[in-house]
Amino acid sequence: MLKKTLITLTLPLLSVLAISAGNYTVPSASHTAGQIRGGEARQKTSDTPASTFQKMIVENGSATMDLDLNGLNGSGSLVARPVTLQFAVGANSFLPILVFNDLLRSAEPGSMTLIQQNAGAGGVSDPGYSLPAALGASLKQLVIEKLSSDHGFDLAVRDGNTGFTFFNIQGHQYNYDAAAQSLAITNGRLLVSKEFANSLGRPLDAGAIVGKISVGAAMQPIEINRLDENGNIKSASLPALNQPRVGTVPGPDVIVGELLDFVQMEPGAVNGQVGLALGTDACNKGTENVDWLALPDNRHPFIPQNLYRMSSGVENNERFEQIGQSWGKHAFAAASSNTCGFGCNGVGGDHLGSGCSDAYGAGLNGAQDLIGSRAWVNPFTGFFAQNPDPNNHNGHTHDVTSHRILVETSDLIPAQNPGATYFAEAQYVVEHEYTWCQTHPGQCNMYNNVSYQQQNVSGGPTNFNFSPAGSTMREQPAIMAWTGATVNEGEPDPGNDGIFWVGYKVTGPNAGLWHYEYAVYNQNLDRAVQSFEVVFPFFPPDLSNVGFHAPPQHPGFANDGTLGDAGYSSTPWLFTTSFTSATWNCETFAQNQNANAIRFGTLYNFRFDSNAPPTEATANIGFFKTGSPISVKVQAPLQSDATPTPTATATATVTPPSSPTPTPTATATATATATVTPPPSPSPTPTATATPTATPRAIPRVRPTPHPRPIP
């Protein structure tokens, strides 16, 4: 599975190209490939004949590492103890090279997946060999990465999942054979990295030479540009590696096909909080290739990640809370794998091909310099500001938690959360899906970009381990995992803004009290949610143990997109009651643009106890930026002044018109067949005239599953 580092996809113009030999050497960190290329003299376009410029990636290949075990293990012996590690290079590995008129111009940032080959007798698993434990544990997930020019080395050997660097590579040569379309990397010296030396407890060994590496790879073009004698592009093509248009859904349609590694990025906690990251593998279900152009271009996905916990009550499923959220990873350089089995057409680079998949390990999704604030991004259109830079980290410093999934240690420590269940979630915000929808109204695929997976949690109090407890639940937000709850969808402005979900669950009675639990999840609604009102169907009930919960907000950072770089507020919502309802709300947009609203990819909780039993009712959702409130189905306490139990007359006021007779008794399953929004309630509530969500949709769209529905 391909894990990537930062990849530059800008096609150099002919005016800055000069014909070079078919190989070049990278002797030291001060002479990287990018610097050599940048230092060459420009060639006048008037003297340049018609030419061809190709971008190529690895089709397949092999790699060999020759290691000195004595040097690697720090034995101090003057006698080398060699071992050879052999690898196949993963097919379609995205380490691009640029070829001009059949001559190698440069190798661009990317990576080659290494697949271990000699694990049997006489290989690295032989008892006679002893690799350091960290290296041995990563043998099946190593990659060779071509680094960008601002790094100290041109190539490195890393763990593809975590990003941990074992070796830097120095002194290597690139040799390209145009006739065979093959690339050789030879004479590379393996130097122990600083972080590997520290992990071995031998920091002075950083930079020590412990072996050499060589690579041979067959290359295949993914982009071909033919230029005229003036350096202008006459034609361009994106050759397909397999068959084109193999997806099943019209238009571009990105889903989270698999959730990968889930890790605490660095040990330790800051102010009782840790920083986590979640690996993601996106798949394109659509028949159209998806734009995947790196910053500063707007046309690429944005990838926020979240963590949730289900807990409390007799069965530890009474409430479902979000306990962590990250900033978002700006995607770049798509691979062309086939994780979802759709039959990838082989297109990669600045497009994710039809049917293809593209993976980022947690090490990249949690790399602080590669992730930007959610504040810059419109979650429905996928548009983000390009000026200023939406991924500007100038003016602030990072600790181990910065920009990652920020979680309180108290929400993870197993002893403090007995029986709790955890769910990791990732989302892709895709600009191309929105722009395609504007010109193809029947092909709008912006609503199924979230997937989740249950996770086991161990460790603590400051260092935690995670492992998957099931498969990835595709195209569903994590709130769908709330056992026994009913979850309804709301859409305030079809075709112009996104969707949200309201879940509710009533448990009890316990000692004469029912517990009412509500959750509001904003999936991709740009206007955000500012208030939540539970409307009482009859007389106001007695309420106790009123509560509110929201995930921790990230602190303010320079250039984070919030007003005054102050970050979003963490002030708990205000709770008020009236004769007709109970309401929670934050400040309005006019009062505070950084108020603690429910922005996209976040879930807030509202709760209380009551001695009154549940019945069908409505909740009104008020918005932060714009728009009138709308209503969704929930259950609420039914308090009567005449009898101690609800009657048919009392519940008849909230029965939808389609019911021929009043419902004699409200039950928790009464909402299973309800629409997202009921008809206007006859109750004299302030929001009785709110716009219903039953309005016909302006734009048809894909739904992952029929809703509302009870969650088993």
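Second entry:
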Amino acid sequence: MLLLALSFVSTAAFAQKASLWFEDRDGDKHGNPDVSILSINAPPGFVKNSNDCNDDPFKRGKSFYPKAKEPCNYDDFNCDGFIAHCAFPPEPQPIPPQQDVFVVTSFEPGHPFVSFGGGRDNLSNVDDIFPGLGASQSAFVQTNGYGGQKLLRAFYPKAFDFSQTMPKLWLKLRNGDKLAKLSFLVGNKNFKNFVRFNLHSHQGQQWLTDSDWLAFSVSWNLDHLSSMRLEPGMTLADLRREITDFQFQIEDNGQGPVSLGVARIGAVNETSQEFPNGVISFTFDDSWASQFHFAKPKLDQYGFPATAYVIVGFLDRPNYLTLEQLTELKQQSKWEVAFHAFDTFMHIENYTNFSEEHVERDILAGKQWLWERGFGLGQDGKHGIAHFAYPKGEFKQQGKTDVLAIIRKHFSSARTISECLRESSTPSDTHKLRVLYITAPESVEKVMQEIRAGIAAKEWIILVLHHLVENTKENAEWQISKFNNLVDLIAQEMPQVPVKTVGDVLSSSVGQQEKHSTLADFNANRERFKSHQLHAE
């Protein structure tokens, strides 16, 4: 009887003190009214309120809660049961592609290329051709899969002059996860003189996405050359005027074969008329408040603008930019406000892990919210929210959502975090912009060495930074003192090199601009923009 009484008293005391707690799966501090638990203290992942209208993080739940940021036209993000409707933003304008100066080969019948090494090859492949190139065939080589290498090589009797141009390659890589080495050599005198370009990215996201035909330029940046051999008295400039020898070298890691398709070797201008000395862009990700407090005053000192790739969900939270600060960056410091993500959870998990429907809805809702608050596309449709940065730098992975294809529909450009080969002022692919990514371990001198090498090669140096702090704890942070030193050195050493926003570089490098639609045009074209809408869950 005593035990029963104690049990009864204990149960009664629990009932008196306990209360309902509601599950908060998406971590937005708002609970799901349909999932609760009775407890004295808050269990992990539970909160006191029950006013969330979407608690599923994989269905954009982190963006849905009372007083959430809500753009017109899309969803009831703020849980008030009402969806506002208004005009849709205009579509961004495309950036004209890089123009070829000359073509070395399109692997037409009779081309001089031959292959060496074990494995397979088809140097007259009519079954896999670069779409829209106009070529009738391509070359294909494949390693043996046991750590072997394969060479594709040609010697031309007539020299090609690359003194004012850089090579452009049309390639397709298959089984890139098994790739050990991929390089491209140009030289003369049967490679008595040569330079070797490294084409293999070692980052998590390979710039050469698997099984896709890609076209890209490679600059004469010495950082891109894995080796170089020149006869005594010969300079790199001398070699560039007399290129007769071309070779691709591919090697697998012993875990299976890797193949390479080559559709064309050509040349594009090394630089643009607008930026004959190269150009630099500062870009900042993730909406950190330190960008306003520390980056802004230092860049303002020299009149340098920047591009901020914004995560809308972080705005107005502790340690992040407020809407007022973002507006000041744009209006007073001439920063460009571009788009990174709307839902913070979708950024953290990266877009490739969500369905195409959720990715597209996040893009359209986020662009709409920014546009409603005055962050547009500029008068030519090639600025501001015409530009995008991939969350976590991921744009395409085998078996996951093809974010790259979605982004091509909705933005003039997209910035990666890939550093294998840096960018030219007229990019070879505006939706895979290549960068110089600055992280915590980087010294100022190392970053400056890379900038100097890029500017010597007349590149577009796109600097990627995140959070500026006194002392770094995370990889994506950089010290304020380092940043200040870097900006000073760029201003002092490179007065001839302009510092521009991403939109300014892209719009300047394409010449005559098209006129942007007026607000009246937006409403007239409402039906066209409605086609982008997706049904809410």
